[in-house]
Amino acid sequence: KAKSPATKKPSAATEVKSNLDVTVDEFQQSIVRHLHVSLGTDENKANSKAWWTATCAAVNELVFERATQTQKTHYKKDTRAVHYLSLEFLMGRLLKNNLTNVGLTEIAQQALDKLGLDFHKICEEEPDLALGNGGLGRLAACYVDSLATLDFPAIGYGIHYEHGLFTQAFLEGRQVERPDSWREYGNPWEICRPESVQEIPLYGYVETKYDDKGQIHKEWHPGRIIKGVPWDIPVVGYGAKTVNILRLWESRASDFFNWDVFNAGGYLDAQVENVQAETISKVLYPNDNTDAGKELRLIQQYFFCACSIKDIVRRYKRAHGDDWSKFAEQVVMQLNDTHPAIAIPEMMRILVDRAELKWDQAWTICQKVFAYTNHTLLPEALEKWSVRLFEKVLPRHLEIIYEINSRFLEDVVEVAFPGDDSVKRKLSIIEEGHEKMVRMGNLSVIGSFKVNGVAEIHSKLVKKDLFPEFNSLWPDKFTNVTNGVTPRRWLKSCNPKLSNLISEHVDADWPVHLNKLSKLADLATDSKFQKAYMQIKLENKIELAKVIKELTGVEVDPTALFDIQIKRLHEYKRQQLNLIHIMALYRRLLQNPDYDMPKRVFIFGAKAAPGYYMAKEIIYAINKVADKVNNDERIKDKLKIVFLPNYRVSLAEKMIPAADVSEQISLAGKEASGTGNMKLALNGAVTIGTLDGANIEIAEEAGEDNVVIFGLTVDEVKELKSAGYNPWDYYYANNEIKAVLDWFDCDYFTPGKPGELAEIKRSLLDYGDTYLSLADFASYSEAHKKIDKLFQDEKTWAKMAIMNTATMGKFNSDRSILDYVQNIWNLDTCDIK
Ligand code: NBY
């Protein structure tokens, strides 16, 4: 095996200087002490899981003190803070990340070494904190990392799901889901805060009362009270100065409320109520980009927003008493999509019904407090709740929404568009129809002072296609903040070899000043650097090949081109386009065994929402085609296909450093931004992509020589659709398309079961090919031919890979956070001593 010039020990300068003075011996003692004291076991009995727990406890000892110090300082200085409200935080594993951020990776490694333990094996014991679905949840996790790193006062609010995103296995090629239990035997990173419990009302009815002066008062008589129990997870900034917290609410039955039931002799009934209350935080809804419209989901949304607002108000009152005049100066709440939009009427309820402010005064405050991030244009993902359901669960909030709406329609819309009923119909929070619906997008726009999209093109489409009338009413409200990813997790910690090489050539603070990677551009054609860089890529591919072998039994050649598509399974993301192209390659190899292409390995990772039929069919089809191709000796291993089960953050950390090619092939106009595209490019993968989401900005940064762009543009998609798209035209015009799709009709890939994959063909022809896979096929195929040529030219490929790493500085989530701070949040940093 070639000896890598990059595998030498990192110099001290590359490690962030920790201000936590801990020696290897002290850390080792701390681990052992926790093994004894916290876990009640000893060195002889402890298994790997116990060692992992003890190591986390040793880290926590250092971190919790910092967290307390941070909270104290924020309180003393009475700082303005951002409150990031999100139904999802996809945190992944925390041990390695927290060690990276406190600068103790080496110390911990050596301490475990001295105990005769393997650091990496211990890290593998950690379950992922998978409290999210995909991009939106992972973005929230990157943002809390950046907020702490940049020393901004911030708190993340979410739900303490008992079960995060399901785990995925394949049974004869089909996805099966099992519950995820990340805290079955407790999780060392969280602390319960019973002193901050909140009580949350639900259901019931509203009573209208008049006081002596004839003033109306509304009193909500809830049908149920639910207890919200906060769990805090420390969020360690890089350099470990600021440690913010992520506060997750768990639902419980309220004892207080249950007394009545108990006293009435209803011991068993009370237990039933407990089960119902605890159901609220039981499980994460596994949909991405589709709205399920379920009652429990609405309750989840309200439950965590109400708990969070009570928490925010309690903290504010501690400093300012009943004086509401400073509230909007101290508090900003960012809505991560419309999922927490119910926070807007809840805030109004607190101000009007509880604090007894005048409506106008309350609304003025509200409109200075909320800002809303839109993450999708897909119509099926735009949240709507039936008025009927709202009335049942949150009767007072429905009234408040009607009030917000009628004032908005009279005072704003009527003034700007006098007499225009069609505009009113579009802008109304209430959608009229056979079932009246509450539109959470309109509520969010009306209640927020800023609305942002997540990539340039997406933000333009938010203005032009999604909210055009709102945009003409309030042009200054709409803005863009292009997404970013934390380079601490997505380069420094997941790709240590490349990180060390980088640190030999650029300042050691590149993990916070990622633009410094641009210096690597000077080395992109330096053959010594190219060799070192590509050697690391090869070593990462060797590591991934081992993982592939373990998880699927398939052997892959690490020198082959590793082509990776990792993201949720969704038709708009077009895994099916990737599949039909792979089948076309297979067919070319069968027809001509000398067909000129480098050895290729196509690697997938994706979960399908359990109720998304077509997504599951696509998974099955990929697995079936993989079975056939991987065992076909005629093509002499030139083509391999692997679908790694249970794609998640910790698996992404192993796949991304090993990618040669990054598949970003959504239909133009459908992917709001993408963030996997940034992580892959940062680690030196060449993007094959459409002009969609952040791909456009990635291409601008990397330069057109260093990405491969194909397919229809947003405007061309619109044109083709309005001209009337007919997929059959492409089927009859392109022999390869026809042959590949016809393959689905027979039993070539499903021996003895002809037509088992035919749904794929039907979706691409009979059901209209909604995402234009056939229209983009030829262009995609040409793009891959170009990739093949480039990859076979080692120097060119090395240059392209290096240029990708060198130019991704813009996509640091620190930059995104600074954009939010400057254009939306208006925060000051706060030094923690
Ligand atoms: O947010 C993703 C976008 O698809 C992606 O382009 C973007 O980069 C990322 C971060 O901005 N959206 C996303 O992940 N959405 C969801 O996961 C999601 C989850 C639940 C629901 C809707 C969307 N829901 O309605 O229940």
Automatic annotation (TrEMBL):
Reactions the enzyme catalyzes: [(1->4)-alpha-D-glucosyl](n) + phosphate = [(1->4)-alpha-D-glucosyl](n-1) + alpha-D-glucose 1-phosphate
Domain of life: Bacteria
Chain positions with N6-(pyridoxal phosphate)lysine modification: K679
Keyword Glycosyltransferase found: yes
Low complexity: compositionally biased ranges: 3-14
Pfam family, one: Phosphorylase
Region (Disordered): 1-14
Top EC group: transferase
GO BP: any one term: glycogen catabolic process
NCBIfam families: P_ylase
Descriptive protein name: Alpha-1,4 glucan phosphorylase
